[in-house]
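Recap for those who missed Tuesday's class. We walked through two folding examples back to back. For each one, the amino acid string is listed first and its predicted C-alpha cells come directly after. Nothing is annotated here on purpose, so try labeling regions yourself before you check the end of the notes.
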Amino acid sequence: MRKTNRFGKRAGTARRAVENQASSRRLNSLRQDRSSRNKRKDQTGGESRSSEPVLRFEKPISSLRESQRLRQPYRSHQNDRESSGIESHSSHPQTSLARPSRFRLVLVWSILIAGGLVLMANVFDLQVVRSNQLQQMARTQQQSPMPAFVPRRPIVDRQNNILAVDRPVYSLYAHPTLFRLSHEDIATELAPILKRPVDELVKELYSGPSGIRLTDFLSEATAGEIQRKWIDGLEFVHHSARHYPRSESVAEVVGYVNFDGEGQAGVELNHQDELKRSIEEISLVDEEIGPIDRSARHFFQLDDLRLKLTIDSRLQRLVRPVLNEGVSKWGAKRGTVMVMDVRDGSLLCLVNTPSFDPNRYFDADLASLKNWALTDLYEPGSTFKPINVAIALETGAIQPNSSFYDPGQIFVDGWPIGNAGRGGFGQIDVAEIISVSSNVGMVRIMEQMSASDYYDWLEKLGLGETSQIDLPFEIPGQLKSREQFVGSPVEAATTAFGQGFAISPIQMLRLQATLANGGKLVVPHTVDGLFDSEERPHWQPDLPPPRQVFSPETAGSVLEMMEQTVESGTGQGAYIPGYRIAGKTGTAQKSTAGGGYSDSAIVTSFVGILPVESPRYVVLAVVDEPNGGSGGEVAAPIVKSVMEILIGIEGIPPAELE
C-alpha cells in the first residue's frame, strides 16, 4: 500500500525533483569519465568500438535503482522499501518476475478447477448414483431394532375362566445411600405391605450401600401403595410376568414359565408355539442421528386368541381338597385323581398331591413339580383285571357266564399265587371274579389263551408305549420282552392280576375308557384349541382317530360286571344311591430294587365309570404308599366324592330305576 504524508502530492513531486537532479549530476559525471577514457584510447592508438556512448539510459535512474533493489532477496527488498517509505513504479514488468507469477497463477487455478471437478463428482455420486443406498443406510442408523414385548396368549379353561395371563409387575430395590429416613423406619413402613418381619427387612437394608433387591412380582396396586409413602431410596423396576389366578388348582396341567417367559412344564411348555404371538418387529428412532422416519413407526394390534383347555377349573378346585384329605388320612406318600370324557379323551381334571403354586414355582421341591400321573410308573394290580377279562372275551377264550374254581391258592411253574386274603371263593363266574377280585380266578381265565396271543393283545392295547397325551415328560410303560413273557408261565400268570408290568396312571385311565365308550382306544388330551373372543376356532389339535380294540358287546359286558363290584363287591365305598356306577379296586405290592416285592409298601387305586346306562366319565384315583388299607378303603371313597362333585357340576341326573 502506497505511503503518503500530510502534504500529499506536493511532497511526492518535490521528492522526485530531488531524485532527478541527483540523477542528472551522476549522468554528467559518467559522461565526463567516458570522454576522458576515449581521449586516452585515442592517444594510445586504440579504436573506438562505437561512435556512441556504451551506456544508454532509456529509463530514469530511479527505475534503475528499483530494478537493482528487486534483484535482492525478497526479505531485504521488503525491509528496504519499508525503511525508505518509497514505492517504486516501473512502467515495464521485469521478465524475472513475470514468468514465476504466471506459472503460480496457472498452477493455483488448475488446482482449484481440479478440486472443483472432484467435488462435483462426489456430489453427483452422493446425490444421484448412491442416493437410495445412502438413504437406506441413514434409516438403518436412525432405527434401533429391539425385540418387542409381546405378551403370551392367555390360557382359559372350558368355561373361559382365565388360568394364565401376562400382567405388569414390579421388582422393589433399595438404595440405602439415598435414604432420608432410618433403616428401621423404612423397614417398619414396608413390613406390613410386603408381609415380612421388620427385623428381617432391617437386616436386609443394612446388607449393602445400594441395589438391594427386596422383592419381586409386586402387583401394580401394591407398588402404588408403597410409592404413596414417598420413601426416598426405593426403586421400582417394571417388567411383565405370567400370572396364574387359580394358583395351584391347575398347576399340573397349565405348568409354568421361567423368568424369561419360556414354558417349563405343562401346557405352557408343550404348546409354546400356540401361546406365542407373532407380530411385526418394533423399531425405535434415534432423533440425535436423524429425523424421525415415519416408516419406523410400527403399530401393531395383538390378536384376541386364547388357548382353551378341556380342563374344568371348578372341578380342579373342588377335587384337590378331597385328594389332600384322603392322602393325609392314610399317611400316604402322594396321590393323583383324573377325570376324562370317555367319548373323545378330553381331560376334565388332573390333580396331584403334593403340588405347587406356579406363581412361585421356584419355592417348590422337585417332587412337587413332577406330574407323576404321567412321569412315574406303577403296577396297577386288580384295576387291570377288567381289561384282561375283555381280552379273554374278545378272543373267545371265555364267555360271560364261564365259571372257575378258586381254592384260594395255586402254584404256577413252582410259584405260589393266592388271593389277597388267602381264602378261596370256590366255584365263581367271571362277574364274581371281578367283584371279589380273585387272583386265582383271573389266572384260570388267562390260562384259556396262549401266552403268545395274550402278549399280542397287550401290545395292541399300547402297553409299553405312552398314552400320547399333550403334556410333556410322559414316559412309556414297561412290558417284558416277548421271549420272557412267552418263555415263563409265571409271567402271564402275574400279568393276569395286574402285576409284572408297569404303566402310568394316565395310561391306565386311557385303558379303562375303552370299557366305557364301546371299546375305542382314545388319546387323552387337555387342549381344545385356539379360539377368539367370539368362540370361533382358529386352530385345533390334530388328534389320532379313536382305535377300535374291543367290540361294543365285549365292553358292555365287562361294564356290567364292574357295576356289580360297586353294588356288592370290593368297590362299595364308591356307591352313590340313585346312580349306576361301574368300578374296580386295585391293591398292588410295590416292587423293590432287588427285583422282588415289598411286604409293606403298596399302591392303592380305584377306577369308576358313570353313568353306566350312558357312560360319559371315567374317574381314577391312585394313592401311593398309604399306611395300611386297600383300594376299596383308601381310593374308592375319594372317587365317590369326586363323582358327587362331577354330578353336581355337570348336572348328571339319577338313573331311572326299574
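Example two. Treat it independently of the first, because the proteins are unrelated.
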Amino acid sequence: MRLHKKIFFFILAGFISFLSFSQTKENTPAQIKKESVPRKKVKKKSRRKKTPQASNKAIEISKKKEDTSSPNKEDVLSADSILAFSKKHLGTKYRYAVCDPKIGFDCSGFVYYVFGHFGKKVPRSSIDYINFGTKINKDSCKKGDVIVFTGTNAANRRAGHVGIVISELGEELRFIHCSSNKKRGGVIISSYKESPYYEKRFLRISRVAEVK
C-alpha cells in the first residue's frame, strides 16, 4: 500500500513538473516581447533659420570704416582736370542766368557748371561766394581756387563776379571766367594785373574744395 502511494506521488510530481515546464515555455516569448527594450526616441534637430543680423552689422561696420578712411570723390579734385575742362568752354557766349554750354553762361553759372562736372556743389549765385569756402591770401592762391570781385561798379562792395584761378603758386594771377563785356564777352582768360579794373573790384580768394 505504501509502495502504491509512493508511485502515485512520484507520477503526480512528474506530471506537475511537466505542466510547469510547458507553461514556462509558452510564456517566455510573451515576456521577452514585454520586456524588450523600447526604441530610443531620436530627437529631431530643430532647423532654425539663421538670421542675417550679425552679418548685416558686420557689413555696416565695414562700410563705416571705409567711409572714414577714404575721402569722397567730390572732396579731392584734380587741378589739371579742372583747368582742362574749363578751357574746353573758351569762347562760349555770355548769357545772363544761364548755365548751359550749348546756350551760354553767366559768371557764376560757368563756375557752378565746372565744379558740378566733378561732383562738387558750389553756390549758383556770385553774391554767395563772399562767405563760401576758406578765405585765402591772394599771394597764396592756386589752381582751382575761386576769385571773387564786385560787380561792374567797384564802389558797391558786394560780390558780383567770380572766376576760377588757373595760375600756379608764385605766377602772375590769372583766371578763367565768363565776362559780360560786350567787346570781349563770354568765357575768357584774364590777368589780375592786366588793368586796374580788376584790382579795384577784387574782394577775396575762396578755396571751395581740396585741389591737388
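Answers for example two:
The chain has five helices and ten strands.
The first strand starts at residue 76 and ends at 77.
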